[in-house]
């Protein structure tokens, strides 16, 4: 008898540890357990992060045309509950609204001092630094919680957003550094100042490796994790030199929340690595 599953129920059939491998496409749930291309719940050839236990309606649009005919040959289990799709859109809207709020925080911080209280160059300097830090935080969150976010957003859209946010953060950081050099760095402690160029160099390496990931196998993932160290370095840099961070309590609280979220994201990724490590011997 056909079943009606929610996305939460679908997620249980992830093809791991002997569980069935189900995917949903255009509201229909397919059983891919018998397919040799879906070993351990992950498609062997797909580079879009296609995994069992998810709604792949968007991913199938970018897949080769023969994939849809192959999918049609698979047994069907049932359908996805319509209310689940509405709930997904609500969560999407909520996360986009949260992003807008985060991007507004730097303007609030600078505005509390007064946009006319300092020269325009100083205002742009502060905004570029705070927005770059915010975008780096958002990018780390997208990367850390990507296994969860792919249940909410299209995988390709999420991947492109991840790359675009990193590039924009890098561009703003470059702008901040350039303006700072033009205005001069005399009077600032040298150690925190030189954290900036060091972070920019490493960030450029991380971005370049991310765009070249197909030729680097799993090495790129370890290089990509440098983002956590970069976040810590920028946090120290901002706390030591940033006038807004040092003088505004609400910004200190927000930065502490960011730091806690990054730690939570790192803990989540470590958990996934350990979980994956525990499942490998069972498959041997």
Beta-strand portion reads 5-15%
Strand arrangement in the largest pleated sheet: 1-5-3-2-4
The total count of helices amounts to 12
Approximate shape: elongated
Helical residues, percent: 55-70%
Distance between the termini: 35 Å
Mean model confidence by pLDDT: 82
Radius of gyration: 22 Å
Structural class: alpha/beta
Instruction: Describe the main β-sheet briefly.
Output: 5 strands, mixed
Low-pLDDT ranges: 279-284
Enter the CATH topology name of the largest domain.
Four Helix Bundle (Hemerythrin (Met), subunit A)
What CATH architecture of the largest domain do you see? Up-down Bundle
Any overview of this molecule?
- The protein is of the alpha/beta class.
- It folds into two domains: 3-80, Flavocytochrome B2, Chain A, domain 1 (Roll), CATH 3.10.120; 83-283, Four Helix Bundle (Hemerythrin (Met), subunit A).
- 67% of the residues lie in helices and 6% in strands.
- The protein has a five-stranded mixed beta sheet.
- A hairpin with a 2-residue loop joins β2 (22-25) and β3 (28-31).
Core attributes:
disordered C terminus; 67% helix; 5-stranded mixed sheet; 284 residues; elongated; Four Helix Bundle (Hemerythrin (Met), subunit A); Flavocytochrome B2, Chain A, domain 1; 12 helices; alpha/beta; 2 domains
């Amino acid at each position: 008898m056909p079943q009606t599953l929610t996305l939460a129920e679908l997620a249980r059939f992830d093809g791991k540890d002997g569980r069935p491998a189900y995917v949903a496409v255009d509201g229909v749930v397919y059983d891919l357990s018998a397919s040799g291309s879906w070993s351990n719940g992950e498609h062997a050839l797909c580079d879009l992060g296609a995994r069992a236990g998810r709604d792949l309606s968007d991913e199938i649009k970018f897949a080769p045309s023969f994939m849809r005919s192959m999918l049609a040959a698979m047994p069907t289990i049932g359908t996805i509950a319509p209310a689940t799709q509405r709930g997904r859109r609500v969560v999407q809207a909520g996360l986009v609204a949260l992003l807008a709020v985060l991007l507004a925080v730097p303007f609030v911080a600078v505005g509390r001092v007064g946009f006319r209280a300092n020269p325009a160059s100083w205002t742009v300097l502060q905004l570029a630094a705070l927005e770059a830090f915010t975008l780096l935080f958002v990018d780390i969150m997208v990367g850390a919680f990507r296994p969860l976010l792919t249940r909410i957003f299209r995988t390709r859209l999420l991947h492109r957003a991840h790359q675009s946010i990193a590039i924009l953060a890098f561009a703003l950081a470059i702008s901040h550094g350039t303006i700072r050099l033009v205005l001069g760095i005399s009077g600032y402690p040298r150690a925190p100042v030189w954290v900036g160029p060091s972070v920019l160099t490493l960030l450029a390496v991380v971005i370049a490796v991310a765009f070249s990931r197909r030729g680097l196998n799993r090495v790129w993932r370890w290089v990509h994790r440098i983002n956590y160290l970069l976040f810590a370095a920028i946090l120290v840099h901002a706390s030591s030199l940033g006038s807004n961070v040092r003088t505004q309590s609400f910004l200190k609280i927000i930065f502490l929340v960011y730091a806690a979220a990054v730690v939570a994201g790192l803990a989540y990724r470590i958990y996934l690595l350990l979980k994956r490590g525990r499942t490998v011997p069972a498959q041997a």
